[in-house]
Amino acid sequence: MSLKRDILDQMQKNFLFAVVRGSTQEEGYEISKAVYQGGIKNVEVTFSTPNAEQVMRRLADEFADTDMVVGAGTVLDEVSARLAILNGAKFIVSPNFNERIAKMCNLYTIPYLPGCGSITEVATALEAGCEVVKLFPGGLLGPGFIKDLHGPIPWVEAMPSGGVSLDNMEKWIANGAWAVGVGSALTKGLKEGGSAQVEANAKEFADKLIEILAK
Q: What SS3 state is found at 77?
């Protein structure tokens, strides 16, 4: 299979995405490591984290022989996308669709998951070769959006990000989510509990997923 297909298959198998926003480079690394240890294997290091590409490089090297898939989030231009890819990112996520980023990712056969909030944006992303779109902001769109989206475009794969919680994850999955992205819920209590709290938060989501899939 192609590199892109191999990456997408592993990402879907992992299913949960951790959206990592560290206030420092070291915190970004520690959060990433903690969510992985808690059971979330897709790690999206956002460019709002200082020196994010260095965090990606460190994770890509340290976890090279594991099922962790390191990617970049909050990618706003093709230069950042290339920087991330050269530092080990295996997928690129942005809050919006950007055709130049799509072309850069296609050049390196790396999955690009652009943020989409309408049928028009989804169709535009598909035309540019995106196989999975990020539904953003998920909290505003709601789980029912996937079901509505699959009416006219049943073949599109969608990953909600923003607004995904332990309480509504099952609804997203029931409506056809390809995967789900979890952000601020993972760092709740970080200041008080440190990495151990982040790991515990991640484990809650990983355990919840197992529970849902077992039904």
A: coil
pLDDT, tens only, 27-66: 999 999 999 999 999 999 999 999 999 999 999 999 999 9
Sheet-wide strand order for 157-160? 157-160, 132-135, 112-116, 92-94, 69-73, 42-46, 16-20, 180-182
Query: Active-site residue among 27, 30, 44, 53?
Result: 44
**Annotated catalytic residue 134:** yes
Q: Encode 48-86: b = buried (16+ Cβ within 10 Å), e = exposed.
A: ebebbbebbbbbbeebeeeebbbbbbbbeebebbbbbbe
Amino acid at 162: G
Token pair in block for residue 130 = 């995106």
Topology classification of domain 3-213: TIM Barrel (3.20.20)
Q: What is the pTM of this model?
A: 0.97
Q: How many residues does the chain have?
A: 215
Residues 113 and 92: beta-carbon distance below 8 Å: yes
List the catalytic residue out of 53, 90, 134, 199. 134
To the query of whether residue 44 is one of the catalytic residues in this protein, the response is yes
